[in-house]
# Entry
Amino acid sequence: MTLTTGRHTPRPGGAPLGRMIAAQAALETRMTLRHGEQLLLTAVIPTLLLALFSVVDIVDTGEGERVDFLAPGILALAVVSTAFTGQAIATGFERRYGVLKRLAASPLPRWGLMCGKTCAVLVTLALQTVLLTAVAFALGWSPRGNPLAVAALMLLGTAALSGLGLLMAGTLRAEATLAAANLVFVLLVFFGGVVVPVDDFPDAVRDVLEFLPVTALSHGLREVLRDGAPLPWSDAAVLAAWAAAGLTAAARFFRWE
# Structure
């Protein structure tokens, strides 16, 4: 009997890092888009708020078309819903159920897992932006300003709120994260300059609210998209400071188990 040598030699090992991150990002995106509660948070609620407050005279948005004031704020709210609230809740329960612990034992490094989650957030946010922009145009929105300035503010806002969401998910129990993230989302709708102008609040309260990341994001987007201003560096600086602080704290205090 003659034995022949097979042509296929086992080569155990992980896939290339870029392919692993892309696969993780695709998985995270599919899980988000298939989750009914996540879709309610990221798509349905912002769209309803945009349509409701644009059509019904509930709050005084100042001069000009109501949608011109509301659309930038709702885009900021979309960043909150995806980068902060949705990511905090999903990551918190992944941590509770041991998903992160098992992924940590895979060839995908922990920073690669975070990159995958970040890419999924950006993809989801891009889809949100397309949807909300289409609804705003249907309501008569006339945006102005440099799209690159808008993109820079959205990326800074995503980094800031993503860091805070991961910090919450990595330090609190899953149930506490669920309650806190939803509470913060509701509070920011009314106190973050999204649908209610910050100028309507007393001076002492306004001085505090202006340093919140969502307030800086909504004000910066409004400056560019409604007023046609260049990149507002003061708002960008606030977002950059929150991003640096949030991501640094998340990297330092995040617990994987």
Residues 17-253 form one domain. The chain has a mean pLDDT of 84.
